[in-house]
Amino acid sequence: xxxxxxxxxxxxxxxxxxxxxxxxxxxxxxxxxxxxxxxxxxxxxxxxxxxxxxxxxxxxxxxxxxxxxxxxxxxxxxxxxxxxxxxxxxxxxxxxxxxxxxxxxxxxxxxxxxxxxxxxxxxxxxxxxxxxxxxxxxxxxxxxxxxxxxxxxxxxxxxxxxxxxxxxxxxxxxxxxxxxxxxxxxxxxxxxxxxxxxxxxxxxxxxxxxxxxxxxxxxxxxxxxxxxxxxxxxxxxxxxxxxxxxxxxxxxxxxxxxxxxxxxxxxxxxxxxxxxxxxxxxxxxxxxxxxxxxxxxxxxxxxxxxxxxxxxxxxxxxxxxxxxxxxxxxxxxxxxxxxxxxx
Length: 343
Ligand code: KG4
Ligand code: ZN
Known about the structure:
Blueprint: E1 2-7, E2 12-19, E3 25-33, H1 35-38, H2 46-68, E4 75-83, H3 87-104, E5 108-112, H4 113-119, H5 122-125, E6 133-138, E7 143-150, E8 153-159, H6 165-175, H7 182-189, H8 215-227, H9 236-262, E9 267-271, H10 278-291, E10 295-296, H11 308-320
Parallel strand pairs: 1-4, 4-5, 6-9, 9-10
Antiparallel strand pairs: 1-2, 2-3, 6-7, 7-8
Bound molecules: 5'-O-[(R)-(carboxyoxy)(hydroxy)phosphoryl]adenosine and zinc ion.
């Protein structure tokens, strides 16, 4: 079966065609990042994002169809992100997908963006990842640790109460005048500094919950930089960046560690834009060896937003819940979306 994936929840417009069933592979994918449009504002501007999605949709769709050599009638399912995300951006992709579905009578499924990130390691390790599993989704908009008993039987172990990990990285880089998005920029600078020079308090929730909190990191880094006059003109900045990354990655691993105290699992997965981070990947590999639990990370192109993970997730929902209504008339977009419903 061929599945068309459509992703437009934030600042990437992406289309993908995958094959699932006997064959399980990505056939073609197209992605257009809006980073250059948002760079000068130091973050994503929602109205610009929506307009840009609208401008490139048709061209990208034509691109995947042409390169795949398929006809639109060969597509057996359209899988589209319908939340969480920027509402205008989501609506552009969703409306386009609903139009296609209605015109060509193709079933459509709306998928949760966070769950499709959690699904992304399966694109390369479909037959290796075993349940139950602990899965961390760590990106610019989300930081959520899940315990999956099976793909659709899961619970949230920890979620962020304030900023997401990538968001704090982006804010720190912006404050230091390093550009946008900050995650990849800080990643490249890590090696230049001393990761032990500055100490940060690892956040702890006062109510004893397992949730994450990252806003304290942001305040601590910004205060330190301001009070000690650290900026991109002096070498201390590299020590501050390395120390910050060292502490944040320790914190993420600490939360996985405490998740493992609560749940016995056969695999660990970490996905989302921040899972591209070199230091985090390195520490996770050491941690997985120590715990003797296999670790699966997405291929680097499937860490950040993409449509292949959306198509992959949609197929899983469609296969598992064949009796749901995959008609298109009441599928809606949600800026915030809980994990209870797939469509
Ligand atoms: O998954 P994603 O594309 O979008 C969301 O769903 O949020 O993640 C984007 C985030 C940004 O905050 C970006 O700075 C971060 O992922 N990111 C990284 C790296 N590459 C992207 N963070 C740390 N290290 C990286 N190499
Ligand atoms: Zn994302």
